[in-house]
Specification:
Helix content: over 70%
Oligomer: single chain
CATH superfamily: UbiA prenyltransferase
CATH architecture: Orthogonal Bundle
């Protein structure tokens, strides 16, 4: 298979388009750190870091889980277990993606570069979490929470309470929807000795836990304006209200006896939520006169 065709297969395998789940939160952290758009090179290197981080994490996850994917009927047709791409090629793709992340961190500022090994450890370590703990959903949230934290540090060169609260909202949001997504593999996880909240507690309890995590998400988003020194106004609150509606729709779609609309809940509602909140933050800063490019 030609090299570019193998690259296309890998990008399809890692669902490259799902980078939009975390990217809007990175851009939100960036906007809040600078009170608006920073200089174009900073925006560009943040985008490079995000693409590198997410591609490395997903590629490594597929590599680490290839034997499990082969044994699971839902995932047996993925590129690695189906033999459409080699483990060596995916490993090279992961290495290249990590190099992009480190390069971007180096170009952003010294603190980003110093923290890049920790970021890499979290991004890659998540792939083994479900072998040891049903708290793996929270660890996935921690991995994605690096997006707003990293973007804030890239712009501000330091850390503050506001991005930590936004990152905590990402942790609970991601853990909540990952629990829903894991519902479809609960029986396989039990047979394979893997840990997940659905495998440990069952469908009904998992839906309640997911719902409580998403209530925590909304509470953290509601706290953000009071901890962000310049403040946030009406447009931001419209964004929070939209997030509440999208989370409600997500939970209305997934019921104990009907998981048929899980993909709509996972991909559509969550993809819209992150974009909606970014748009609300950008609009709020623009209306306050702080959203012009630097």
């Amino acid at each position: 298979m030609p090299r570019f065709e193998r690259l296309r297969v890998v990008l399809e395998m890692i669902k490259f388009e799902h980078t939009l789940f975390a990217l809007p939160f990175a851009l939100a952290g960036m906007l809040l750190a600078g009170g608006g758009w920073p200089a174009a090179p900073t925006v560009g290197w943040i985008l490079v870091a995000m693409v590198g981080a997410r591609s490395a994490a997903m590629g490594f996850n597929r590599l680490a889980d290839r034997a499990l994917d082969a044994a699971n009927p839902r995932t047996a047709t993925r590129a690695l277990p189906a033999g459409r791409v080699s483990p060596g090629f995916v490993a090279a793709f992961v290495a290249g993606s990590l190099a992009l992340l480190v390069l971007a961190a180096w170009r952003l500022n010294p603190l980003c570069l110093a923290l890049s090994p920790l970021a890499i450890a979290i991004l890659l370590g998540y792939s083994y979490a479900k072998r040891f703990t049903w708290g793996s959903h929270l660890l996935l949230g921690v991995a994605l929470a690096g997006a707003p934290l990293g973007a804030w540090i890239a712009v501000a060169g330091d850390l503050a309470v506001a991005p930590v609260v936004l990152a905590a909202a990402v942790v609970t949001w991601v853990a909540g929807f990952d629990i829903l997504y894991a519902l479809q593999d609960r029986e396989f996880d039990r047979r394979a000795g893997l840990f997940s909240i659905p495998a440990r507690f069952g469908v009904t309890a998992s839906l309640w836990i997911s719902g409580l995590l998403h209530v925590a998400t909304l509470a953290l988003l509601a706290a953000l304006p009071f901890l962000y020194a310049p403040g946030l106004g009406a447009a931001y609150w419209v964004g929070v209200a939209g997030c509440a509606a999208l989370l409600a729709v997500q939970h209305a779609l997934v019921r104990p006896g009907d998981l048929s609309r899980l993909d709509a809940a996972f991909f559509t509602a969550n993809g819209l939520l992150s974009i909606w909140l970014l748009a609300a933050i950008a609009a709020d800063l623009w209306l306050a006169g702080r959203g012009a490019p630097g």
